[in-house]
Amino acid sequence: MVIDLHVHSDVSDGTRPPAEVMRRARGNGVDVVALTDHDTTAGWDAAAAALPDGLTLVPGVELSCLHEGRSLHMLGYLFDPADPVLAAELARIRDDRVIRARTMVDRLRGLGVDVTWERVRELARGEAVGRPHIAQAMLEAGAVASHDEAFTPDWIAEGGRAHVGRYALDPERAIALVRAAGGACVLAHPRAGRRGYAFPDELIERLAAAGLTGVETDHPDHAPDDRARLRGLAASLGLVVTGSSDDHGAPTGDRIGAETTDPAAYEALVAAARGPVSPLP
Questions:
Q1: Residue 135 and residue 151: Cα distance in Å, rounded?
Q2: Contact 7, 245 (CB under 8 A)
Q3: Residue (of 39, 51, 49, 48) closest to 11 by Cα position
Q4: ∠ CA(40), CA(41), CA(46), 5° rounding?
Q5: Which of 3, 50, 204, 274 has the maximum number of C-beta atoms within 10 A of its C-beta?
Q6: Of 276, 277, 65, nearest in space to 186 by CA
Q7: Alpha-carbon distance values, 175 to 79, 97, 170, 206, 243 (Å)
Q8: Which residues, at least 6 apart from 71, have a Cβ–Cβ distance to it below 8 Å?
């Protein structure tokens, strides 16, 4: 069984509609896929309606969190999307994303970059406008030669000249909200140093004590040594280990299924969730 528990659609910062993401997942030989768009569940219904035969959908979300001023992402699975507290927090995060993105566009224009809010909004298409859409607009304007160049201190990296802070959840509160809504949480790519993450073991220990279910150990941005260390830490804390492609469509090479989760770990994750939504046939 091929299981990928972290993919995105154009409802957030992916480039493929949810229905196409499902078709591509099955075409890549995936049996179970989690749709985890940033801070929104808006793609769930379209994905579910387009499920090919033999593919199971795990409804999820990638929650924006902050730890000591640094971005941290939490994957929430199998929760009730109608839970009022969690839904309100997701809406607040999305609303702040718009304010933040508009301010970043203004700063870029002040730095001489010919980007417009209208173009960034067109690129976003879905609910969750974010830095990848700004990076694409910068690329189109000729200000940078690649997406990665946009994510530097010269531009929109954390602490960069055009960077703007945003509202996000404390990770322990995020875990509590997802659990209260019947779901389970997995810490996303905690050693993706290229992205500025690389969170310490002590934080993962604290999150485990707060109710974290698992850690995403096998991720395209994780080095082999990091994977081994994370697996050892997860074992010592009784956490599930997951593997995921973190596919965003064209920018990541349509890599759904490039990293996978062991079936036993998947079953443990499902067992940890108690919400009314189930991915099982």
A1: 8
A2: yes
A3: 39
A4: 130
A5: 3
A6: 65
A7: 11, 21, 9, 11, 19
A8: 64, 65, 158, 168, 196, 197
pLDDT tens for 20-75 read 999 999 999 999 999 999 999 999 999 999 999 999 999 999 999 999 888 899 99
Residue with tokens 């989690």: 34
3-state SS assignment for residue 115: coil
Q: Which residue has the tokens 């994957």?
A: 75
User: What does each C-alpha distance from 164 to 61, 118, 131, 134 come to in angstroms?
Assistant: 23, 19, 10, 12
Read off the DSSP letter of residue 57.
Answer: E
Which is nearest to 186 in space by CA: 169, 171, 197, 165?
Answer: 171
**Helix axis angle, 171-180 relative to 84-110, nearest 10°?**
140
What is the rounded CA–CA span in Å between residue 89 and residue 192? 26
- Report which residue type is found at 155: W
